């Protein structure tokens, strides 16, 4: 009977280090773009967005069990963040944290894009099979682009804190009811809402244009971050109306998903994730 051996500790360690080095090399190589030629960009409209949403719902219905397992952690993360804000005296960051969730949502949906791609190709579309294909070539660009979105999210929280400090702050509030009362019954509170919504809209618009098709493209093609970002910006520039409509749909859907203690995100996130893949298919030739 054949028996596998791992050899002596030195040779085994050398093999593992070599494998780790190859994976790291693939990840670093995938971040850059050797070919800077952008793919063709298609015109898209409300019909394309409607079709993408229908395909997203169809994917969710077909992969429901696997999808729920893959995204069930995110509502829990949202609940934990909200509990931290309430208990740490950071009530003014509660809404910015919830509103900023979509800024990093494209990273959370990376497995959903792969599941839709695999189902489209007639392959095994389970979440285990999808995650197994996210290797160094894909992981490096995805993580680097995810770090960019995380930095934008951090800047948004910093801006939100500054807006609160010059309007309702800087003294913290002892209770949520007191904070809400000051927010909606004082001129300073309404000023905070107005400025915060305006600044938040700018952050959301930037992230929407950067991530419209970039993450699905990194899954689908051997391109680096520069080409993926440039393609996403090109799609947004060529289709401003459709991009704005898609952003509105995403924002409203996420708000509705967060209302029942973030539980609705178990449905909203996968549907939007799958739909994003199909929107990418329609927008990029």
UniProtKB/TrEMBL annotation:
Signal peptide: none annotated. InterPro entries: DUF2189 (IPR018692). The chain crosses the membrane at residues 67-87, 93-113, 142-167, 187-213, 245-272. It comes from the Bacteria. Keywords: Membrane, Transmembrane, Transmembrane helix. It holds the Pfam family DUF2189. This is DUF2189 domain-containing protein. It comes from Paracoccus aurantius. The lineage of its organism: Bacteria, Pseudomonadati, Pseudomonadota, Alphaproteobacteria, Rhodobacterales.
